[in-house]
Automatic annotation (TrEMBL):
InterPro entries: FN3_dom (IPR003961), FN3_sf (IPR036116), Ig-like_fold (IPR013783), Peptidase_S8/S53_dom (IPR000209), Peptidase_S8/S53_dom_sf (IPR036852), Peptidase_S8_Ser-AS (IPR023828), Peptidase_S8_subtilisin-like (IPR050131), Peptidase_S8_subtilisin-rel (IPR015500). One of its GO terms (molecular function) is serine-type endopeptidase activity. The keyword Iron does not apply. This is Unannotated protein. Belongs to the peptidase S8 family.
Length: 763
């Protein structure tokens, strides 16, 4: 016998209710014959009608439906007409009991439920915590815990936070841990990820954004692990960084319609810190959005003349940007002031992401290596060539003064160029860099001419980049022609900057335009490709980038805008399926067949998931089926329930939105929304009741009329086998009554088929 925790004010317990001494209680086993001589402010039990063949208990001494109510319910007595009582662990107010009943009827195994107002408790009586059950009906608790209930999911980027309610039956010993598992399927498949905790929540990490997972929870005690809870689905969202300019859509090159499709690409990777992108440019400046984003670089400028290098020395290991201003720099000629070009380029590649600050780079997790080759007014070819050699892992110079790079770059960004042919020295340096596995990305130039006139864009073994604008077109300034391999966003590109006019000042952000801005987008995407497939050769990278199936919005008929998602193997998310249809078969265990049509345009779907809900909107699916075809079965549908279906289509890029409004299917046949019509009866205290068909005639053999004065407790009137007008007698004159009708099916259970009628007072 389970010990009860009693209030000091309690003298006697009856059916889990603490009764004050002096209160009269009468009860007989097998029938409900109870009288409490106090008020009726609290309710201690519900009356429930279960579907046919539904077990009344989910586990020993736990009534079916407890999990949905969120309260432990103890099985009570069979009171006939397919109805039974369930006992609450605590006495509650009438309104709270009514809410419990509403929650209970959301369970498709339950026809209807309502508070039992004839089994009420005075409100000044302290309720007990646990019902008394006689020794001969007490079931032996199971040794392992039952399933946790109320599984709640909160998806975040790359992870899902899971919480739950302790199982009603904890077994023969205390719960020691919970195991949460994520599956890729609603009913089968192996574990994708998991977490173990002693609390009632934990976080599953390492999940793919945009993909749907099914989560279950199991409890463990010293006797072993109990059964897992039913699986609940959740979908981590696409990575949505909180960097303000990204959130405000100022970084159109990343998340705009004609951008590089970065958000989808980030499903695959945001970069590997072992991949280094060398930026051969003006050097680096301090910026909070670039902290920790670099590996040691080098200053390759040999001319120590202060009018050019600006730092008073030759080559050294400090690649700081001292400014590249020219004579005449002032407010009237800002183009002659320092450009901080290298800082701007670096931010496009790998500015810190999701740090609530400024911008985010296209490959925020790779590293940049600054190689300073540009000073006042430009740079020398010899310094740029030396930078290519050093950055790619070659040796610059000989003997004691020879320079070598301890962290060679897999990608070199050259947002620079001059008019002329590709020289043998340039070509040799590029060839050697390629042979060491380094991809070289070069700006096409900003003269609005053929890129063949600009070097090193016209060298072999480089990826030459033109600019595109936010409308998907080609800006007037961008060089073009057959040597251009790819276009990338290059107009009004916001990135990290410095506010200094000549020398370095405060960090800031600014927009710039040019193929110099387009090039780091491509260099960053190449870094993402190498992060995912580090064995790719420079030639293989170029082949993939120039393949138009990996491009979008092709311009000039030759080259298009780079699509990072396609290059990383992340296809476009399919469009929503259409023409969802369903049919029901079976008599006892119901099976639903769901079919649909795939979208006729957009990316190809490789999988589809049909989902069934208990509500027309919101909520989590209660079951689903996954298939590569255009139809699948939903099995074990509960007889007598209404389900609401939708379908989503997916591929490795993620899942589409749902297929429009959910389709309702009913496993008990069509139900009419009828309301009883009332007329005065021929005798005192009687009312004539008539109603619509409610159910197809083949699914019922009689009707039961019920009436109520408060819509909370209902009494049974006559049961008839036709819908002819029926007189209900024995009513009180002058009292308002409402009526409803339930239908008795051939199976012998009742289904509510009508709403409540208007009020009527019998004469």
């Amino acid at each position: 016998m389970k010990r009860l925790k009693a209030s000091v004010a309690c003298g006697t317990f009856f059916l889990g209710v603490c009764v004050i001494p002096g209160t009269t209680v009468q009860a007989t086993v097998g029938s409900l014959e109870t009288v409490l001589e106090r008020g009726s402010d609290l309710v201690s039990q519900l009356i429930v009608s279960y579907e046919q063949d539904v077990a009344l208990t989910e586990s020993p001494m736990t009534a079916t439906g407890s999990a949905l109510v969120g309260e432990h319910l103890t099985p009570g007595l069979d009171i006939g007409l397919g109805m039974t009582t369930v006992l609450l662990d605590r006495a509650v107010s009438v309104s709270e009991a009514r809410k419990m009943a509403v929650r209970l009827t959301a369970d498709p195994r339950i026809e209807w439920a309502e508070p039992d107002l004839q089994m009420s408790v005075p409100s000044d009586v302290t309720p007990s915590l646990t019902p008394i059950v006689s020794q001969n009906t007490m079931a032996t608790p199971q040794s392992v815990p039952s399933s946790p209930t109320k599984i709640t999911l909160k998806p975040f980027s790359g992870r899902i936070s899971v919480s739950w309610v302790t199982p009603v039956n904890q077994g023969t010993s205390a719960i020691t841990s919970y195991t949460v598992r994520a599956y890729s399927s609603s009913s089968s498949g192996s574990t994708v990820a998991s977490c173990v905790t002693t609390g009632k929540s934990c976080e599953i990490t390492g999940l793919s954004n945009g993909s749907t997972y099914w989560i279950s929870v199991a409890a463990k005690n010293s006797s072993g692990t109990g059964s897992a809870s039913p699986r609940v689905s959740g979908t981590p969202p696409l990575f949505n960084p909180n960097d303000p300019f990204y959130v405000n859509s100022d970084l159109w090159g990343l998340n705009g319609t004609y951008g590089v499709q970065a958000q989808k690409a980030w499903l695959a990777t945001r970069g590997n810190p072992e991949i280094v992108v060398a930026v051969l440019d003006t050097g680096s400046t301090d910026h909070p959005d670039l902290v920790g984003q670099t590996v040691p670089g080098y200053d390759m400028i040999t001319n120590s003349d202060d009018d050019f290098a600006g730092d008073g020395d030759g080559r050294d290991s400090d690649p700081s940007d001292e400014g590249d201003w020219e004579d005449g720099c002032d407010q009237n000629s800002p183009e002659l002031c320092s450009s901080w070009h290298g800082t701007h380029v670096a931010g496009i590649i790998n500015a810190l992401g999701n740090n609530s600050l400024g911008v985010i780079g296209v490959a925020s997790r790779v590293k940049v290596q600054h190689v300073r080759v540009l000073g006042h007014g430009g740079g020398f070819d010899s310094d740029i060539i030396a930078g290519i050699i050093w950055a790619s892992g070659g040796t610059v110079g000989e003997g004691v003064g020879a320079l070598s790079n301890p962290t060679p770059a897999r990608v070199i960004n050259l947002s620079l160029g001059g008019v002329g042919a590709c020289t043998p020295a340039y070509q040799t340096a590029i060839n050697d860099a390629n042979s060491r596995g380094t991809v070289i990305v070069v700006a096409a130039g900003n003269a609005g001419t053929d890129a063949s006139t600009t070097t090193p864009a016209n060298c072999n073994g480089v990826i030459t980049v033109g600019a595109s604008n936010s409308a998907g077109g080609q800006p007037d300034f961008s060089n073009d022609g057959p040597l251009v391999d790819i276009a990338a966003p290059g107009e009004y590109i916001k990135s990290t900057m410095n506010a200094g006019v000549t020398g370095p000042g405060l960090p800031t952000y600014r927009e710039k335009s040019g193929t110099s801005m387009a090039t780091p987008y491509v260099a960053g995407i190449v870094a993402l490709m190498l992060s995912k497939e580090p064995l790719l050769t420079p030639a293989e990278v170029e082949d993939r980038i120039t393949d138009q199936s990996n491009q979008t919005f092709v311009v000039q008929g030759v080259w298009g805008i780079i699509n990072a998602a396609l290059l990383l193997g992340v296809p476009e998310i399919p469009q929503s399926p259409t023409n969802v249809a369903a049919s029901i078969s079976g008599t006892t265990t119901r099976t639903g067949t769901v079919s649909w049509s795939a979208a006729t345009s957009g990316s190809v779907a490789t999988t589809h998931i049909a989902r069934a809900y208990l509500r027309p909107s919101g909520d989590s699916p209660v079951m689903s089926c996954s298939t590569a075809n255009l139809a699948c079965p939903l099995s074990n549908l509960v007889k007598g329930a209404t389900y609401y279906l939708d379908v989503i289509s997916g591929n490795t890029g993620g899942y589409s939105t749902a297929s429009g409004p959910r389709l309702a299917i009913n496993t008990k046949g069509p139900v009419a929304n009828v309301v009883p019509t009332l007329t005065a009866g021929p005798t005192t205290g009687s009312v004539k009741v008539s109603w619509g068909s409610g159910l197809e005639s083949s699914l019922m053999d009689s009707y039961l009329i019920q009436y109520s004065t408060d819509l909370l407790s209902w009494k049974n009137g006559p049961e008839v086998d036709t819908r002819e007008q029926t007189r209900v007698s024995g009513l009180k004159s002058g009292v308002n009554y409402r009526f409803r009708v339930v239908s008795k099916k051939d199976s012998g259970t009742f289904i509510k088929i009508s709403r409540e009628s208007a009020q009527m007072k019998p004469s």
